[in-house]
Amino acid sequence: MKKFHLYLMLLLCLSGVAFTSKTEFPVRLQQQLSLYYRYHAPLKIYVDFNQPKYSPGDTAFFKTYVLTPTGRLLTQGKYVINVMLVNAEQQGILRNKTFVQNGKGLSQLIFPADLPGGDYSLVAFIDGGESDKTSTPAYFQRSFVITGEKSLKDEKNTPLQFFAEGGALIEGLSNTVAVSGMNASDEAYVSADGNRIVSFRATDHGWGKFSFVPEAGKQYTVEYKGNRLPLEAPKKDGVVMTVSGNDAEGLTASLQVRENSTMRDAELYLVMNVHDQICFAAPVSFKRNTKMSVSLASKLCTYGTARLTLFTADGDVLAERFIFLEPSKPAIDVQFDKEQYSTREKVTVDIRLSSTENALHTGNASVTVYRNDFFKDTAPGTSFFNHVFFNSDLSLPQALSNIDYSSQEINDVLIAAKWNKMTWQQMLAITPGVPKTSNALFLKGHLTDEEGKPAKDSTLITFWLNQNDFIYGVYTRNNGAFYFPLFKNFSDDQALYGVTYRNTTIKNTKLTIEEPSFVMGNTAIKMKSTENDAYHAFMKVKVPILKSFSYYEKKRNEGSEQRVIENEDIAEDYIDTDFTVELGRFKEFASVAEILSEAVTMVKSKKVQGKDDIRVFIKGTSMFASGSPLLVIDGVLTDSIDYLMAMNPSMIRSIGVIHDKNTLVRYGILGKNGILVITTGAPEVHQEALRRKGSLNIKGIDSPLRFKTKQHQGDSDKRVPDLRSTLHWEPGISVYATKETPVEFYTADGTGTYTVKVSGITEDGVPFETYRYFKVVR
């Protein structure tokens, strides 16, 4: 910051400009940038998957990164990221909550077997804690393919779009225009009143560029594939700004105005910033000349996407464009222990980061290995590097994917870029807020009465999470809003709740949990091709084959399966009752009321306002409770006495009772009248029937699953086919410049070419990604 102020003062003094309130504009701009990045700028999110695409029934493993707003460092603290699969109607059809700590989190999406194939979108975002409604929330989006019978390919019929460098075409001056939407290496022509004046050719990635001098009164079109597309009409006044060179050899900004331009007497500033730091600022005057060249001191800037803007002294933008100041990218060295492998053979891969400019890098990386034949028709999603430096901050006619653009081409592409956060005028108007910390790990909801009237402030809502066996009380705030903490180990659950206000129970309330909201951006459209999808065809064969071997697998893994069953039993039996009555030793009862009256002590059935009800004797008070007890029927929480009393008594196997005052304290108002724990002979019958107004489903945090791999040691499993398409997923390895990191896995039964993808981020915030290949033969 001091370096910038000294540099700015030197420029102003050398130009003979005295400091006034207007000449202090760049300093004010720096102050506002600092405010924005401290209080309002969103974090950056990136989600890295273990395969390019998936089929119905698959499990998609992924790693989520959360970076600071500048993108240079992983965040510290804890966050909950919403990860959602969205269909063409922009409906969230599959939801995940991923816990992220210190910038990294692991989880998975499990796709239903009946999920229709198609081109979906995958969005990831942070909600909760984003109180500043003017700021863009932390957000990630990419195209996401679920396979069907036919493969999907990118739609090529994208419209041509034209972007004047600096922002606008100006009459009588040399203008440069970037063109998007062309096919690789295609040629196009610029015509004036129907006469061709300029030709240009697209790059391998479909971008074109041309320069021309528009004249007053003429109509300009671009001729491409037999179509004529109009260019915007040039303005009569303004500033043309173009940039040449590169950050390694030096960047130069060329500025032009017309002889009669109103800009000739204006006090202007040329400012360049990279995220929160202005690294170049200089006063500009056209009083003597209509053209000028300014050498940009890009060496004073840190790496990243720089924003070069020409301002008036009042902060109005006359011209703007983005430039990429490329970081020193570490190379990733991937070495295999053999040139090719046999099926079911051990593979050892050594991974190492190269050093750059005397820097010995370390980093955190993910490694995934998949069969290339099944995924070669599907390009990987946006690379970590391109998302952090471009897509997360900029609006472009098409998101930059995993292509490694040259320095010149990326700067030509950036002619079309616009900042997607807020305008400079909004930036100049922002005020300090609350510094951004970890987003609150909570769900937000509202409590109302049946007519929709908000609950009073400080109304107590007591929740009991069924599977997690957790009781928690929260108080409402303004307009009945409440915040329910989302603890790290909370999975999806059903919660029963009770409501009191100043120790008085409130009946007939309505509670809703806010669903996380998102706004979709544009993604590349994919269309069905005439070719069969190789991965989908493979999965259709794989599933029945593996089912046919399920009996053998079950016998071989009997021990581990038994452990799972035991754990499930323990999970259902988590409630300690004061005593339990097993009904198998009694004669058959005529009704539930008869069971309670004759077989269960400390409990009685009675009529209340003409209806059957239950009362539990509360130990420690020497009296029966004044209200109905809480019920837990086959592990489901409910307070529906009517449902219990109407049950077939022969279905009930046991009734447990919690009636000790000291035990009931932990259950708050939910347990103040005692608790009955009922088990039946047909628990599946009651699950859906017991969903009622006093309970709700809570979307918890999805705990990461372990990726299943195989180690082919010996001949014990030769009878079982190994049909894995993805051999390995290791999302948390450390990589170094000073030594190799070994990664080991076994090949499967499939032969062909396999891809090893290594992606991650260095300790100084530079994303990296590489692909290497090996072959498996018989």
UniProtKB/TrEMBL annotation:
The keyword Signal applies. It comes from Chryseosolibacter histidini. Keywords: Signal. This is TonB-dependent receptor plug domain-containing protein. Residues 1-20 form the signal peptide.
